[in-house]
Amino acid sequence: MARATARKGTWTAPRFGAALLAAWLPACGGDHVTAPTPPPPSPSPVPVTSVIAEGSFSGLPPQLGVAGTFTTTVTGDLEFIVDWTFATNNLDLLLFRGECSEDQFNAGQCTAGDTADSSTAKPERVGISSAPAGIYTLVVFNLGDTEESFSYQVLLTTAGSASKTGGRSSLPIAGPRWGAARLRPRTMPRP
């Protein structure tokens, strides 16, 4: 009976199988576990700026002021922008939280929100960050020497919704009601 002997350097089936098994087992993962990749975070809501009011007012005499009341229905950053005709005139702004009548103003009973009293800025801007929904009164003073007309725009920036682009839209608001009373400038209250 002839006996098969393996020659040195040759691969027999059992040797080849053992080598293949040794090379294949580490590829199965063994004890090494890879955690799944977490999903990307949700995008933050993009702020949305809405024009909630715009218009104009004519016939503001020198050294007098006029008030307008605005009502918002949502919380956000509130900004009032006022521009006027003659650069030689200086218009200043007072923004109050809540209603501010002529009597309340003259008695110093209004709650100041912001002021814009630069002698050189044109247009003037006032605003309140994180302003709650409610009533706001804007007073525009003409500290110039001639009668003035002005235009205004009221912007409200809210958190918006999760999207890739910001935007501008128009929201309805109550008002504005521009008071017929003419207010005399006095020391500007500070917020």
Kindly report the average pLDDT value: 77
Distance between the termini: 112 Å
- SS content category: mainly beta
How many beta strands in the DSSP annotation? 10
Q: Given the C-alpha coordinates, what overall shape results?
A: elongated
The major pleated sheet works out as: 5 strands, mixed
CATH class of one domain: Mainly Beta
Which range does the strand content fall in? Answer: 35-45%
Layout of strands and helices, then pairs:
Elements: H1 13-24, E1 48-60, E2 64-72, E3 76-84, E4 91-97, H2 102-106, E5 111-116, E6 124-131, E7 134-142, E8 148-158, E9 167-170, E10 174-178
Parallel strand pairs: 1-9
Antiparallel strand pairs: 1-8, 2-7, 2-10, 3-6, 3-8, 4-5, 4-7
Characterization of this structure:
This protein is mostly beta strands and 191 residues long. It has a domain at 48-178: Jelly Rolls (Sandwich). The protein has two helices and ten strands, in the order αββββαββββββ. The protein has helices at 13-24, 102-106, and strands at 48-60, 64-72, 76-84, 91-97, 111-116, 124-131, 134-142, 148-158, 167-170, 174-178. Strands 6-3-8-1-9 form a five-stranded mixed beta sheet, with no helix packed on it. A five-stranded antiparallel beta sheet has the order 5-4-7-2-10, with no helix packed on it. It is elongated, with a radius of gyration of 36 Å. The relative contact order is 0.31.
